[in-house]
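Sorry, I am new here, but would you mind making up a protein's amino acid sequence and the tokens describing how it folds?
***
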Amino acid sequence: MVQPTKNILFASDLSTDMKQVFEHAATLAICNNANIIVLHVMEETQHAEKRIRMAFGEQLYQNLKSRHKDGARDILIGKNIDALKIRQAIAGFFEGAEQNKEAAENNSLISKILVSESTSIADEIVSTVKEEGCNLIVMGCKQQGLLAEAMGDHVVRKVLKRSNVPVFIVPFVEK
């Protein structure tokens, strides 16, 4: 039996292409009266991290890491011009959406914004789905070579292999 979708995990890499992907997530959320949990994962690579620490010192490394995380969070919560445009696009979805008046009043379908760090983006997406009780993952993939990307060593392929919930992949054309 198909369970109703109540929480949608929107995995974002913060690129401008994610607007197209988010539009699909928002539409699905409105149709299902669901919430969206936005996730951005910053990939940690141990070798690069070690080299940066050795070259610049621990304090500078921690400052850079903190600024990167704060920058990602600012983009997602709206302290950024692109994020403001995304929020305005969200507001546009509510015009004429009578079945979701409460969300329209709050002007957002987004229930949580998460920024995390992990050595595996796919593992972090799958574990967040479990922790947050998500029923669906929405993520994007370059349209050119979509099949090749899904079959290769790519985050989408890894999520598809590891996920216990449906994965909605939105192909986009890079600009």
About this structure: Residues 58-77 form the longest helix (20 residues). The longest strand covers residues 35-43. The chain has eight helices and five strands.
